[in-house]
Amino acid sequence: MPLLTRRALTLSAVGVTALAACTPRRNEKDDEEDSVTTSEGTCHPAANAPQGENPYGGFRISPDQLVSPEGLAVAPDSSFVAAGLEHTAPDSLSVEDWGTAIWDTASGDLLTVTGNHRRGPLACHPSGDMLAAAGRSQIDILGRDGALQWTLTGHSLGSDEDRRIVDLAFSPDGALLASLSTERTLRLWRFREGACEAGEVIDLGDLMPASLSFSPDGTELAVAGATGPVQIWSVGDVELLRTVEAPEGSPLGVAHLSDGSLVISSYEPAALAVVDPSGAVRPGP
């Protein structure tokens, strides 16, 4: 069977249900008052990083929850694993404890906690030298030692406390980072020769996005969300190439297999399907 090339898919029924519960329901009032607005994306060097955002947002704080369920990243060489640390002890609710935590996988030792308050999705650069850590609307680019390199801004919170970045992914060659937000935009960020710059902003229309995946060759981006079919975008000219309907249910998770096939997870009913490059659909496991 072709190997999965995506780090996180939410394939279990529990994961699908959790994502469904986190997906805001839209109504006519939402459409009138919550239209998409885009702002200029900026890569701020560490020395000029903006003030951190409110880490609470619309999230409920659990006093016995140590690690954020929103993100996990493993180095390509498996040398470290990273997750969001919400507080260091069950009786501690101090946000000073929060941040991106990095562990050594060989020893299990906690190497560093950044204190950056980011508790959203994480993505590791293919080189293993950079880690992207998302907050609600900002993204930190960290070195593998946790040192801040850039803070990326541009996603909007608007007046909705539930708005947040829901997924991150680096392209296979590491030249691009894609960030996906419930403001219904997908942003591209470019990295080359030690520099970072904001790229294109893709308006996803009525799609309430949940996950994204780069194709194995890096030429396409798939975006899944509960309010429409999976959207397939070209990375080069940033155009919508096609859409892919889930065989049943509402799509929430998407990942590419190494042969270019798409794995789509959906809910109501919970189901898995594999769509090969020719468009043929076969049942998932």
TrEMBL record:
WD repeat start and end residues: 158-199, 211-243
UniProt keyword list: Repeat, Signal, WD repeat
Top-level taxon: Bacteria
Residue numbers spanned by region Disordered: 24-58
Residues of the signal peptide: 1-20
InterPro entries: WD40/YVTN_repeat-like_dom_sf (IPR015943), WD40_rpt (IPR001680), WDR55/POC1 (IPR050505)
The protein, known as: WD40 repeat domain-containing protein
Lineage summary: Bacteria, Bacillati, Actinomycetota, Actinomycetes, Micrococcales
